[in-house]
Specification:
about 210 residues, four-stranded parallel beta sheet, 8 strands, alpha/beta, globular
Length: about 210
């Protein structure tokens, strides 16, 4: 059975992805690495900075040493960089939001990207645009950053974080064909709202894509 590795930038994701993996593919071997500094550096210095790339490389080496044959980067901000470094090393590294972007493009039309961090916006937009171009599909992308939400997350108020994002979705859904929750930490929002359009989150879609 393939060993799957997860590269996290927050420890809150460890239990989430282990639980999903067990639900979708019971008994699958899992290893993980957590490096909170990577997200901080990426926000401060940009994802192409040498310190960020070196940190991603070290995390991938650790996961490979621990037996990972596929690595899923669960951070949307550094996910594209992790994929690129994986290709340079001839390793299978995939960003957590790729299956979600593919599903959004399948739905098509007006795609509303919701984020709590500015640093997530450009990587997510570029991913959706890249998938759409590769498939020859025209989509319109609107971006919505929920001000103040990330501060709730950093303070450890996860329920308040989710509630704040959920409260913003009804207004965002007006005119949208699909809502994309740009960060894995937002997954619980999808269970809190019914706004008349699909609300996509990355964790379950990613684990299902890579383990089935």
């Amino acid at each position: 059975m393939t060993t799957i590795g997860f590269l996290h930038t927050s420890p809150v994701h460890v239990a989430t992805f282990e639980r999903l993996a067990e639900q979708i593919s019971p008994g699958v071997p899992i290893v993980w690495a957590v490096d909170e500094e990577l997200l901080m550096l990426a926000r401060q210095r940009g994802i192409d900075d040498a310190l960020v790339r070196d940190g991603i490389g070290r995390a991938l080496e650790q996961l490979e040493h621990d037996g990972a044959e596929i690595v899923v980067c669960t951070c949307s901000t550094i996910g594209g960089a992790a994929e690129a470094i994986g290709r340079e090393r001839d390793r299978t590294v995939v960003r957590v939001d790729r299956p979600m972007a593919e599903r959004a493009v399948e739905i098509g039309g007006q795609v509303a990207v919701v984020a709590a961090l500015d640093s997530t916006v450009t990587p997510t937009r570029e991913l959706i645009e890249g998938v759409a171009t590769a498939r020859g599909v025209a989509v319109e992308i609107g971006v919505h950053v929920v001000a103040g939400a990330w501060e709730r997350f950093e303070a450890g108020d996860h329920e308040g974080y989710l509630a704040m994002i959920a409260g913003a979705l009804p207004g965002i859904a007006d005119g949208a064909d699909v809502i994309v929750l740009a960060q894995a930490s937002m997954a619980g929002v999808a269970d809190l709202v019914d706004v008349g359009v699909p609300v996509l989150s990355s964790p379950r879609l990613a684990v299902a894509a890579f383990l089935t």
